[in-house]
Amino acid sequence: MTTPVLDIIGVSKRFGDTLANDGISMSLGKGEIVALLGENGAGKTTLMSILFGHYVPDDGQIRIDGEELPPGKPRAAIGAGVGMVHQHFSLASNLTVLENVMTGTEQLWKLWSATQQARRKLVRIAERFGLKVDPDARLGDLSVGEQQRVEILKALYNDARILILDEPTAVLTNIEAERLFATLKDMARQGLSLIFISHKLDEVMATAHRIVVLRGGKVVAERKASESNKAELAELMVGRRVMRPVREPSTPGAVVLEVRDLGVRIGGVERLKDIGFALREGEVLGIIGVSGNGQVPLARVLSGTLARTSGELLLYGEAVGHLSVGDVVDAGIGRVPEDRNGEGVIGEMSIWENAVLERLPAYSHNGLVDRKAGMAFARSIIDAFDVRGGTPASRTRLLSGGNMQKLILGRNLSHRPRILIAAQPARGLDEGAVAAVHTRILEARKAGTAVLLISEDLDEVISLADRIQAIVGGRLSPPLDAGRVDARRLGLMMSGDWSHVAEAAHAP
Amino acid sequence: MRLERREHRPLLLLIGAPIAAIVAALALSGILIAIAGAPVFDAYRRILIGAFGSRLSATETLTRATPLILTGLAAAVAFRARLWNIGAEGQFYLGAIAVAAFGSKLLADLPGPILIPLLLVIGAIAGMALILVPLWLRLRFSVDEVVTSLLMNFIAVLFVSMLIDGVLKDPLAFGWPQSQPVADHATLPKLIARSRLHIGLAIAIVLAVVVYLVQSRTVFGLQSRAAGLNPQGALFMGVPLGRTLVKVACLSGGLAGLAGAIEVMGIKGYVTTDLSPGYGYAGIVVAMLANLNPIGVVLAALFTAIMFVGADGMSRSLGIPTYIADVTVALALLTMLVALFFTQFRIRR
């Protein structure tokens, strides 16, 4: 049995009418990795913010090595050895790695900073934990995974013994995430104690020693990872049995969208090259790939926000030129953008305005917006797609990610699109919302909609797609039937080795 | 201590915050009045008397508010779409000089009922023309319009200065640099006889209502708001960003140009380089005071006019510098920004 380095005792915190944390108690042993599992809004981040001194709890206390931590003092928390790795990094992109790590560690009125000393310490820590990064690189030039490493290094540089990671994999690719978890396990072996916040069952099962499940601000269960399973955790987290929908076999119909030799150059850089695929009624075509391989320009060309440089686009069998957003919407193409908050909605505008904005011609007469019809449409989406947390007139920003996504899906699917372009539709959503989104997509497929699913989540693609193509370096692999899929094949496809795909595609 | 976004804004707060802000500003400048050695409440009483105490002062206050409403609207419509038009001053002068140029000779033969609306449109078009330069630079080369529209002010004023000392110079002005006057039948009818108050005020208020309706009811209003709040999202939902910005710019520049036209046709009749005591810049303050709400702009313009006109009266009777009006308006802007901030956020421990 390890000795507890951290004790959270009966912590409560209320925001207005909601009790974000309700008498939460948990402990963390030396060298232990505890996963804090819970859906969005379960109170995970609030609890960690209290631990780190961002919030003052209404009730309860936090003990580190048996000593009570003064509430609401981040400096005291840092001093006691608590380090926090935020989901949205707290780093300055114009400074170097070393400068970022040193920021806040030196007194303001010192005449010169002990750069050499700091550099030695940083290099020593980096070597010890295998967090390789160039101390003199500008932070803005680093990849997201490397930036996260800097954020971790910064915490360790402050002599953190307890490391808190807030949804560390939300921004990482699969490979980066695996590397991160190897690092975390190594840190635990070297005596650090870690808490990581997550709502992804796979990574929790694979990494944590112990799992604390939070729901509605309360600890609902605590399990050893070795004595639990994904199904149990999912049920504990959501509070009811969650079934991800299952794809039923279907016979796809005619080709509605065909792309041949499509190319896109942006600023002289070739982003897409020789892209070709055919999308048929009633099927889901999955496009997998590591992020940054051309998914964004592909989705944008098909959504009408980017013009292609070359290639042919056949819509319902007819060749078409550049499509504007209006053309795309009029042609019965529904669009779910990758960046929900940035593109999918305008947060400061109301729900009904977001519902009608892409269809203003249909919701206006002589240049005047038909507010009544717009409100009615928003109301129908809210009812039919179970959008919770808002009325047609309330600001869209107030919706949670899952409900926002239901709104976006709803405004498209209500108009029974013939084609749906869905980019990362379930990214960052909690288990319940993922199931809802997947159900809607499969319903649309059943109703004959042709769905192009662009996703980095292999599980999602495997469970939804009839055929799969991989995008690598702006090129698209030949399609692979979902029936022939296995993890090894998909891995090879995403790495750009398509020899087996071609064989499989041509096999009788 | 930390800030939290308010998810619900009670109506009382939305109404109370601006009032509290004005009260706070008056209290703060009261300290300065006290330091200057005058009785604070008496000073404010005299400001009110100076602004409304007589028929003359009341009409004068409303006359002063007229251009402020229009330049305030010009700033408000542009800012709402995140188009930073700092060039209302130049647009004001260009609208004014255009009216002087066309109204003194070229079109002076037209009858009044045709000439007056025509000249107003010409003034508005002149304002639009000026803002299109910084807008084009932004759309074509991504040049920040804050800088370009501001610098256009100096070009415009110097251009006007050149005209009124050259081709448009009034030969009967004893050598003073001023433009030829617009024809008598091109002056705006008075709203109240034997005062300077003209129908420009009515035009300004009607336009405020029109702008309000355009912003809240039309496709253009919805699209320009979307473009301002989240250009990326607006683009995704099919808002033509460039075209929307051009329309917003034309509306903004047109309103500022119209302000200049109305000032010439309503009061002075001719253009000098001191036609505007900074109406273009004051419009920015008015718009911010009003939180970019077109109806609020009318009230904010009125407040600003009261302070400026009233401070003259107070200054004469109490011997306090009129600069107190500038200070009060500036303080009101600061307190208003703070108040608006607290309608959106609350402080939590």
Automatic annotation (TrEMBL), chain A:
GO MF annotations in UniProt: ATP binding; ATP hydrolysis activity
Coiled coil: none
Protein name: Simple sugar transport system ATP-binding protein
InterPro entries tied to this protein: AAA+_ATPase (IPR003593), ABC_carbohydrate_import_ATPase (IPR050107), ABC_transporter-like_ATP-bd (IPR003439), ABC_transporter-like_CS (IPR017871), P-loop_NTPase (IPR027417)
Keywords: ATP-binding, Membrane, Nucleotide-binding, Repeat, Sugar transport, Transport
Start and end residues of each ABC transporter domain: 6-241, 257-498
Annotated transmembrane regions: none
Family: Belongs to the ABC transporter superfamily.
Automatic annotation (TrEMBL), chain B:
Example of a GO cellular component annotation carried by this entry: plasma membrane
Record field: transmembrane: 12-41, 114-137, 149-168, 197-215, 279-311, 323-343
Keywords from the UniProt entry: Cell membrane, Membrane, Sugar transport, Transmembrane, Transmembrane helix, Transport
Localization terms from the record: Cell membrane
Mode of membrane association: Multi-pass membrane protein
CDD domains reported for this sequence: TM_PBP1_transp_TpRbsC_like
Gene Ontology MF term list: transmembrane transporter activity
Domain of life from the UniProt record: Bacteria
One Pfam family of this chain: BPD_transp_2
Name of this chain's protein: Simple sugar transport system permease protein
